[in-house]
Design goal:
By secondary structure, this protein is of the alpha+beta class. Among the domains are: about 1-115, Immunoglobulin-like (Sandwich), CATH 2.60.40; about 320-445, Glutaredoxin. It contains 15 helices and 15 strands. The protein has a 5-stranded mixed sheet with strand order 13-12-11-14-15, covered by helices on one side. A 4-stranded mixed sheet has the order 4-1-7-8. It has a 4-stranded antiparallel sheet with strand order 3-2-5-6. Strand 2 (about 40-45) and strand 3 (about 50-60) form a beta hairpin. The longest helix is centred in the middle third of the chain and has 24 residues, at about 170-195. The radius of gyration is 28 Å and the shape is elongated. The chain starts with a helix and ends with a helix.
């Protein structure tokens, strides 16, 4: 009798836990540039104009199927399943099991679909012809005439579909309408951004030109979407670079067109943190004015400080790290001298190979206004100290524990890394030649 009671409790507990979760599973076909299948699919939520991965879902090698439990905190909310820029919306409720089969811009939903997932299933069926032009392999080779016909044919059905989202879940209906509105716009942009040839500017149809010109970016909710940042960037690229034929960076042309101040500030900052620039300092200086709060302004100042340091003539960013005896040393203590920083680690073979050349370089400048600082990114302090002592390594040796300014502000991601500053604390070369290269010695001599 006692065993029966325990078993009943266990079953009841198991059922209770199951009732608080859901399951998503299925297949997702996506080729990497090397023509190999992706090994995992991501279950995500939107965050800061992009996606934030909640769960990486590994595909089985045998049948390429993935499966994952969806936890309570991700139920009754729009979430996304996908890889890279190809994301699909899902809405899971407790106890639900949803199966998808996706890839190349197409998806089918199966199982006992909720009203919410039925909306998404029907939506992707509706815009399937358009997504064919955006996600099919070698889509840029397709004739543009078909793409234009699809856009024209979908205009009325899309508008009707969006106006008829009525699941009885008011919050979902509002969010889904907003997401699908921009999901459609994103899918209109993707084919041209991917290289679909539309011909000369004067050959673009009036409907597409109107699409480009009508977007004023007055809706801050764009930033709540999983593709918000990418949609804005791709839109700017298509409108100004491909269609407009302008030379430069798409973001620079797009920013003045963003009418909503909140959206503009977020896009400017996101671009500053993620994008590539012809002139990074100029971008930051030009757009610092658009920051709206102290947090944004502080972040822009931090980025600007780093950007200026990376340019020859920029100011170094001071740091303070301990030597083998625990004494703290500041970079700024060396003003009036040329400073060479060697960022290295005891486990870095190329770093150790440069050591003899570095010591020869140090000997060549004995008695001159040159300081050599070897800054370790080791995390094993005892191992670092042992090597410095046993090998009697020359120069000033400091320990960073792979933390602080050298990692955060100098953004050292590869070693060995050599950084050279002049007597005034100005950048000579943020990524200087190695000691084994005679160019480094000549560069130091030129600053004495």
């Amino acid at each position: 009798m006692k065993k029966t009671i325990i078993l009943s409790v266990m079953l009841a507990t198991s059922a209770s836990v199951w009732a608080q979760t859901a399951v998503i599973k299925g297949k997702f076909h996506k080729l990497l540039p090397n023509n190999k299948e992706v090994s995992e699919v991501f279950f995500s939520k939107s965050s800061d104009g992009d996606i934030e991965v909640i769960t990486p879902m590994i595909k089985s090698r045998q049948d390429q199927v993935f499966r994952s439990e969806v936890k309570k905190e991700d139920l009754n909310a729009i979430r996304y399943v996908g890889v890279f820029d190809e994301q699909y919306a899902v809405y899971l409720k407790s106890g639900e099991e949803l199966t998808i089969d996706a890839g190349d811009g197409q998806i089918t939903y199966s199982g006992a679909l909720s009203k919410e997932n039925k909306v998404f299933a029907d939506w992707y069926k509706l815009i399937k012809p358009l997504r064919f032009y955006g996600y099919t392999k070698d889509n840029y080779r397709l004739p543009s005439e078909g793409y234009l016909k699809v856009i024209d044919s979908l205009k009325a059905p899309v508008e009707k579909f969006l106006n008829n989202i009525h699941t009885g879940n008011a919050d979902f209906d509002k969010q889904a309408k907003n997401f699908l509105t921009y999901s459609y716009k994103y899918d209109v942009v993707i084919p041209v951004a991917s290289g679909l040839n539309m011909g000369k500017k004067e050959e673009y149809p009036a409907s597409l030109v109107s699409f480009y010109n009508d977007e004023k970016w007055n809706d801050p909710n764009v930033w709540n979407l999983p593709m918000g940042y990418h949609y804005m960037l791709y839109f700017g690229f298509v409108k100004h670079i491909i269609y407009g034929g302008k030379q430069g960076m798409a973001a620079d042309f797009l920013i003045p067109e963003i009418s909503n101040k909140e959206l503009r500030a977020k896009f400017v900052l996101a671009q500053a943190q993620r994008g590539a620039f012809i002139d990074y300092v100029k971008y930051l200086e030009s757009n610092e004015q658009y920051m709206l709060n102290d947090q944004q302004r502080a972040k822009m100042k931090e980025l600007l400080k780093r950007a200026r340091m990376n340019v020859a003539g920029g100011d170094w960013i001071d740091f303070s790290y301990p030597d083998v005896n625990g004494k703290m040393h500041k970079l700024s203590e060396n003003l009036g001298k040329v400073v060479l920083i060697d960022v290295w680690a005891t486990w870095c073979v190329p770093c150790l190979q440069e050591q003899p050349a570095l010591e020869e370089l140090e000997k060549a400048f004995v008695g001159k206004d040159v300081v050599f600082i070897s800054l370790s990114i080791d995390t094993d302090k005892a191992k670092w100290q042992k090597m410095v002592d046993e090998k009697k390594l020359s120069g000033l040796h400091l320990f960073s524990n792979n933390q602080g300014v050298i990692v955060k502000d100098y953004e050292v991601t590869e070693i060995p890394r050599f950084i050279l500053f002049d007597k005034n604390g100005k950048t000579v070369n943020i990524n200087a030649p190695r000691p084994s290269d005679p160019k480094l010695k000549a560069l130091i001599e030129s600053k004495l």
